[in-house]
Write the structure tokens for this entry.
Amino acid sequence: MRPTPHVVIHPSAPFRVAGGRLEVHQIPAARDNLVWLLVAPEAGEAAAVDGPDAAGTLAYCAAHELRLTTIFNTHTHHDHIGLNRDLARRGLLSSLRVVGPARVAGDVPGLTDPVDDGDGVVFAGVAGRVMLTEGHIDGHVSYVFDDLLLCGDALFGAGCGYLFDGPPATMHASLERLAALPGETRVCCAHEYTLDNLRFAWSVEPDNAALAERIRLARPLLAAGGSTIPSTIALERATNPFLRHGSPTLRRNVAAAFPGEPCDTPAQVFALTRALKDRKDYKALPDEALPR
């Protein structure tokens, strides 16, 4: 059986962050995972962020003459620590620095640097910080390096992760903290789910002009095998339904889907918005109903 092709055929081009001190590369993996490679250009040192396996990351490093020294894990789902397990099978993990969530330290293969909310991290001389972003799964962390956010499965392009551990209030609080980052911050999440997320977003807020424009730009890009990631915090604030609890249209549509349920506070709006997406009613929205 042929392997299922990745949704991203043409990865996003590498870009510089942290005043040019780091270069960020996107490596598609499995079906829709996105591995992020942080590169110190002058030293040729690289750090990989999450991943289902190591094959693509190792091949990329070899092709670009990069030396993999560090792994950053955001959480412990198999398609994120699969990278660690594969490196261990190849006899390579023990020589690497592995940074990951301290609250689930026993579940992170090869962990050398357990970190928690507010901790500092350094890669190639560039200082970053750790944010606890639970809700998707317990222990989930995100990493911020100046104008770069590596957020795993917490915040997606126009979406957020399933609430496997939750509760909704915890995920809401995590997303609000991420949304408070500077608007120019690049959002590097771990999956290319944007088109599906945009379909849901349009179903609850069809009068959002910024959302309409995002959909118009995303559809041809994704159809051609490109990637919409990274996005920015500013774009997510403007178009991501899980950050749009202040929108009267979204609140009205979400409340109508759950008669009698409280939909007054931002946390309540978030909880019902997440529940509505999980119900998948929006899947019936035809392509013709989306902005062109």
Notes: The chain has one domain: 15-289. The CA atoms of residues 135 and 170 lie 5 Å apart.
